[in-house]
Design a protein that fits this description.
Order of helices and strands: HHHHHH
Number of strands: 0
Strand content: under 5%
Shape: globular
Mean pLDDT: 88
Largest sheet: none
Distance between the termini: 47 Å
Helix content: over 70%
Structural class: mainly alpha
Number of helices: 6
Oligomer: single chain
Length: about 130
């Protein structure tokens, strides 16, 4: 049997994303050309869409619609990077790896972690703290 290389991120360590900042304002500002208004507007839209996004990810996996799941995850990954949502972006990286490999269990685990990181992000963006907004 062929041996697989060790996985990184959430698959290797389920708490890996928790050690990353939920929100990195400096990163969001860099991505938006140092425009606080644009960064705040994009983050607000992104946060508003996340509950629906979580449901759409679950539905696509339930239907085993790997193409739809990939398209949605890839779009979310880009938005997460621009918005500075570091932990969420890391979880979506794991989800994309599971999708590419058509590993249902890995995708399920990543979507569950995605939902946890959404809740963490929502809490962090309501109450500013060190490293997070």
């Amino acid at each position: 049997m062929k041996s697989r290389p060790p996985r990184s991120g959430a698959a290797a360590d389920p708490n890996a994303a928790d050690r990353l900042p939920a929100y990195d304002r400096a990163r969001a500002l860099r991505a938006t050309g140092d425009s606080a208004d644009v960064a705040d507007q994009l983050l607000g839209r992104f946060l508003a869409e996340l509950p629906d996004t979580t449901q759409r990810l679950r539905a696509a996996l339930h239907e085993a619609d790997w193409d739809a799941l990939w398209a949605l995850a890839h779009r979310v990954r880009g938005a997460a990077a621009i918005c500075g949502t570091v932990a969420l972006a890391a979880v979506v990286d794991e989800l994309e790896r599971g999708i590419k490999a058509r590993e249902r269990g890995a995708a399920e685990q990543a979507i569950a972690e995605f939902a946890c990181q959404v809740a963490r992000l929502q809490a962090r963006t309501r109450e500013p703290g060190p490293g997070d907004r």
